[in-house]
Amino acid sequence: MKIPSDFFYFIGNMRRFSAAWRISLVNLCKQAHGAARDKMSIRGNNLPNTEPDLCTYATRLAQEAGDIAMGYFRGRLAIDVKADESPVTEADKAVEAFVRQRLARDFPDDGLFGEEEGASGLDRARVWVLDPIDGTRSFLSGYPTFGFLLAVLEDGLPSLGVVGMPALGEIYAGTGKAAFCNGQPISASRQTALSDAILYINEAEHMRAGDEAALEKLLQCGSTRRFAYDCYPHALLAAGHIDAVVDYNLQPYDYLPLAALIQGAGGVMTDWQGRALTLQSDGRVISAATPELHAALLEMTR
User: Which of 154, 201, 289, 290 has the smallest number of CB atoms closer than 10 Å to its CB?
Assistant: First the structure.
């Protein structure tokens, strides 16, 4: 039996409420989301294919996916441990199932690569890349910096990236040519000097285990350094709040949604060798506000 896509939205949100509130909640949800779906016809000959239309579609999808995640956030969660010892929750699975069903309905000829259910159609001209909850450890511990990540690849390269931060009420989107947060234009800083930069180092414990020499160099860089995880530092870079992020041990669904966002904001994002990011990249990435800052960080990691 095919489950309607809206089932995932309502089950994610209704589970937190008593029966007395459920009718009101359903009515509110219908008002908020039914109107948006009706306004944007995405069936048949009206499927979005231009860059702005795809960006609008992906942003709205991020909003709905985030609403599902928030229905589980800071509640009791069923948690499994995957083969790589990373956790996966019922929320991860529900969000990915919802997005997969929506994309299968609206873009049946496209490929799809999701964290929880794997890949299909990677040889297609257009491929969607999905991380339903980036930062599951943050999510399950009640920390609000988990995100939803979605990318569109055209002929193997990122052309659109969306970062949803459901608990923070922020959705970032970039097309490689422009970037936005909640619909407002954003841009990276113009910082060019590494010595003056605000630098975030993600996944430092993995970096110490695999590239300790690079980590030691990075610890001497910047005017301000912070250790962090997951997607939010990259979104902060796109919005001009910080200047650089060096990240480690990522999967394609972690870094590909960030690439078009960073580029659209005027920044640079590559692997540690300065190469464009693809499905085959090794998961070590640098995001920088300017080419000068990016070049300086490449010297630290090569």
Answer: 154
Residue 196 has what DSSP assignment? G
**Positive/negative CA dihedral, 103, 104, 105, 109:** positive
Q: What is the pLDDT of residues 199-255, one digit of tens each?
A: 999 999 999 999 999 999 999 999 999 999 999 999 999 999 999 999 999 999 999
- CA torsion sign, 245 to 252 to 238 to 273? positive
Burial 24-44 (b: 16+ CB within 10 A, else e): eeeeebeeebeeeeeeeebee
Range(s) of the chain covered by CATH 3.40.190.80? 194-301
Does the domain spanning 5-183 belong to CATH 3.90.550.10?
no
Residue 219 CA to chain centroid, in angstroms? Answer: 26
Tokens of 71: 């229905």
What is the rounded average pLDDT for all residues in the chain?
87
For 212, 282, 293, 300, the CA distances from 217, given in Å and listed in that order, are 9, 20, 15, 6
Q: How far apart are CA 295 and CA 28, in angstroms?
A: 50
| List of residues 6+ apart from 199 with CB closer than 8 A | 218, 221, 222, 224, 225, 226, 242, 243, 244, 245, 246
Query: What pLDDT shows up at residue 46?
Result: 54
Strands 179-181 and 170-174, bridge-based pairing: antiparallel
According to CATH, where is 3.30.540.10 located in the chain?
5-183
Q: b or e along 152-166 (b: 16 or more beta carbons within 10 Å of the residue's beta carbon)?
A: bbeeeebbbbbbbbb
Q: How sure is the predictor about 70, in pLDDT bands with cuts at 50, 70 and 90?
A: very high
The kind and range of the H/E element at 206 are helix 204-210
194-301 under CATH 1.10.10.10, yes or no: no
DSSP secondary-structure letter at 2? P
Q: CB 45: neighbour CB atoms within 10 A? A: 5
